[in-house]
Design brief:
Blueprint lengths: L7 E5 L5 H10 L3 E6 L12 E3 L1 H13 L2 H10 L1 H9 L8 E5 L4 H10 L2 E5 L5 H15 L9 H13 L2 E4 L2 H9 L7 E3 L20 E5 L8 H14 L4 E5 L7 H7 L4 E3 L4 H9 L3 E4 L8 H8 L4 E3 L15 E3 L5 H13 L1 H18 L2 H25 L1
Length: about 400
């Protein structure tokens, strides 16, 4: 341990997974505060939580009234308000600035003044890679559409990446995208996310018909247009198969989704407990994403006993081994996706063995508290190296 243990100021407009991270850090006595625009949904003590209320109230109407696409469009364009709010805050004592990519620039300014470790936490791959993958799919399948991230956010992200001391990568795919864009490998650590074991538990009932589940935004970036084409083939060869899509439909994929929606069961939104119930009814999770950091639902599905049919780009590879818990697919190839789905539908014994392996692997990876313990060890190591470099000067 370093002379001064890590105390993390965790910041992100919209909590994503960071609220769970902060709760785990608090359990390990490693949290300074959590700053987010969301309400305190994880039960942190008030003294460890600060809400960016101006940002919350200006983005809330879009969540109530608009589609998933316009929610995200508006959210990104309110980032200037997040920065203005952060600059007005009184900072606690901290030695680690832990920021979701795109929301750490102002905190990094303070971190530099106090000598704190600067950490970027990635929900996606490097912004250059993310934009490129997304724009390609828009060009192919939604002519005239484009990624919704404004140029100003792209600039912020690149500045944060350049300044960061440590890059917290949830997957090999994210790490590889950073290396491709010039980030030093010694600054990257791979730490896949945890899950909530009180919600996501294994099924006890035997499965009936072959059901598959996808959960997340239904959009081009997550490969849903290829998944729908794949399931059309699955349905022809296995008429009893069912595909459940849980999530809002984005504008870039809506015409494609409307063409095949009669083949699938669509659940626009569901609370986590209901999502877990749906997972337990299925034989596998299908996640042919074209770009992700790590889809959190992967580990949640594994905890419910689901083998993964997923792409490298989904972030699955730190979680699951190909052939054991994972059938790796080319996300651009509907034929490959369909063949993997049909393989599990036709081989219940293999599906059952992969289910048992998935449960065991999820248990090994563990909860959000386990995840936070691992990253605290990383921070302790990087802080010690930072202190040693300072002492050597």
């Amino acid at each position: 341990m370093t002379a001064v243990p890590p105390k993390c100021l965790v910041v992100s407009a919209g909590s994503w997974h960071l609220a769970h991270t902060a709760k785990g850090l608090h359990a390990h006595n490693g949290l300074a505060e959590l700053w987010t625009s969301d309400r305190n949904k994880v039960g942190l003590p008030d003294s460890f939580f600060r809400q960016a209320k101006p940002f919350f109230w200006l983005t809330k109407p879009m969540y109530l009234l608009a589609s998933a696409y316009w929610n995200e469009w508006w959210f990104w364009r309110m980032t200037w308000l997040w920065g203005a709010w952060v600059r007005r805050q009184r900072f606690p004592e901290f030695n680690v600035a832990h920021a979701r990519m795109g929301y750490g620039l102002e905190v990094f300014d303070v971190a530099d003044r106090v000598g704190a470790l600067k950490v970027v936490d990635y929900c996606n791959s490097h912004p250059s890679s993310q934009q490129g993958y997304w724009q390609r799919e828009c060009d192919l399948w939604a002519s005239g559409s484009e990624p919704i991230m404004p140029r100003a956010i792209f600039r912020r992200m690149n500045q944060e990446i350049h300044r960061a001391d440590l890059h917290l990568c949830p997957s090999d795919f994210v790490r590889d995208s950073l290396l491709l864009n010039g980030v030093a490998p010694e600054k990257c650590v791979i730490r896949p996310f945890g899950f909530d074991p009180s919600v996501f538990t294994a099924a006890t009932l035997s499965k009936g018909q072959p059901k598959f589940i996808f959960t997340g935004s239904i959009c081009l970036r997550k490969g849903c247009h290829y998944l729908l084409r794949a399931f059309e083939q699955v349905k022809k060869e296995c008429p009893q198969a069912e595909l459940i899509l849980v999530g809002g439909v984005c504008e870039d994929v809506r015409p494609i989704f409307n063409r095949w929606r009669h083949l699938v069961t669509h659940v626009p939104w569901a609370p986590q407990a209901r999502v877990a119930d749906l997972m337990r009814e299925c034989i596998a999770m299908v996640m042919p994403s074209l770009e992700e950091g790590m889809a959190r639902v992967l580990i949640e599905g594994m905890a419910c006993g689901l083998p993964l049919i997923a792409s490298f780009e989904s972030g699955a590879t730190p979680l699951a081994a190909a052939g054991r818990e994972l059938l790796l697919v080319n996300p651009h190839d509907p034929q490959d996706i369909a063949e993997k789905m049909l393989f599990l539908a036709r081989n219940p014994e293999k599906a059952s063995a992969m289910s048992a392996a998935a449960i065991a692997r999820a248990s090994e990876i563990g909860s959000w508290s386990s995840y936070s313990g691992r990253i605290l060890a990383d921070y302790d190591r990087f802080l010690e190296a930072k202190r040693s470099r300072g002492a050597a000067r």
